[in-house]
Amino acid sequence: MLKKSTLHILILSFFLLPTNPILAKSFSKIKKEFYREYRSSDYAKRMAAVEKLAKTKKLAALKILVNVVLRRENDQYVFEETARMLKDFDSPKCRAWLGKQIYRHPKKSIRMTLAAFAREWDGKEIAHGLVAAIQDSDWRVRSEAIYSIRKKHRVKEAIPALIKRLGKEKGRLLGEVVEALKDLTGTNKGTNKQAWLNWWENNKHDFQPQNPNQHSPQEQVRLSTVLRRKGGFYGTIYSNNVVFIIDISGSMQAGTEAGTRIQVAKNQLKSVIDQLPAKAYFNVIAYNTKLFPWKKKSVPANPSNKSKVKKWIDQLQADQLTATFDALEFVFKYDKKADTIYLLSDGQPTWGRITGQEMIKSEIRKLNRYRKIIIHTIALMAGQNPGEDEQAAITFMRELAKDNRGTFKLVK
Which of 17, 153, 264, 393 has its CA 20 to 30 A from that of 377? Predict the structure, then answer.
């Protein structure tokens, strides 16, 4: 007859075995429940199913979340929360698998999603995956990988990978590579690949990436200052597929030291269009209660189109309310070339299909899930407009830019 102590050891060993059929059956049951509950049309039930599966922290559960939920989920809240939950799979085996999927997964939509949410995860495996993804065949994956490296995984190994893209990238992606190199190194060699290679050869042994806070852009600028700068409100535009959205609601009649807001905005817009290279494509959308697109989709930035659009801009008048969502949605619906949007406004949304700020931001993130359009915002708050909620407008514009990887500029 076995002693009690021996029996206890045998029982305990049985439950600690990795192939324990009871534990295996438990996960099998959770998996079956997940597939049953995830079929629900109720997003809350799907979210509950995801949470239950994620709590197991098993590699098999991680694979289901990536290959099923991130691939099929239509609700933006469930999609985003699922991607964020992946950070909890912190075992070496799970983190190694996840890092590899950033650049190895057969679905480019999954690769770009993982590269995007990697800035919320930790681990050298994730950083390795992002560096490898800089060479991805899809520009959107490369773009997200570069951005996540800048924001979170600032590793030395990224520098030669970024330099390798010089001479291969064009337009917006070339700008992202250059800005990432400037940000990580604290130096500026522009687009000159050989200059960067020489610099790296001389500095690679002792190199450590710069602290991101040392080179953060200035958010608020005075109107008189920005008007004297090259590029004005818009700065350097790398994109060759850009759409300018300008608010012409009634509040844009407010006066500033340089004229009314609408006059200042129109002058700045005409100036930046003049600077676009002939190889670029562009469009302009004005909006108040209604939309006034110059064209339905982008056209070449040739002298003829520049001349025509400037005459069109001159006749714009400020009046009525602010249908911001409708203007943004128009680009996603009709302009398949656009990869960058500049939104200039002086107020929060007050009209249109969606006016709630949180709903607008969520819907734009959904529309932009795979488009990966960068949205820069310019809040023109110079002058006084009695009754406007300036802080609410600033918060909305700042968060809209942040959600879509753009820069926010407050002009006072």
Answer: 153
CATH number of the CATH domain containing 307: 3.40.50.410
396 falls within a domain: yes
Q: Please write the tens of the pLDDT for every residue from 307-338.
A: 999 999 999 999 999 999 999 999 999 999 99
Each residue's pLDDT tens digit, 370-412: 999 999 999 999 998 877 789 999 999 999 999 999 999 999 9
On whether residue 7 sits in a domain, the answer given is no
C-alpha to C-alpha distance for 232 and 226, rounded to whole angstroms: 5
Q: Is the pTM of this model over 0.70?
A: yes
Give the up-direction half-sphere exposure of residue 213: CA atoms within 13 A in the CB hemisphere.
Answer: 0
Question: Into how many domains does the chain fold?
Answer: 2
Residue reference for tokens 């997940």: 34
- Last residue of one domain, picked from the residues 213, 244, 275: 213
| Token pair listed for 219 | 């958010």
Q: Do 187 and 113 reside in the same domain of the chain?
A: yes
* Contact between residue 38 and residue 46 where contact means Cβ atoms under 8 Å apart: yes
Domain assignment present for residue 173? The answer is yes
Distance between CA atoms of residues 283 and 291, nearest Å: 13
Query: Which of the listed residues 166, 194, 213 is the one where a domain comes to its end?
Result: 213
What helix, strand, coil percent values describe the chain, rounded to 5? Answer: 55, 10, 35
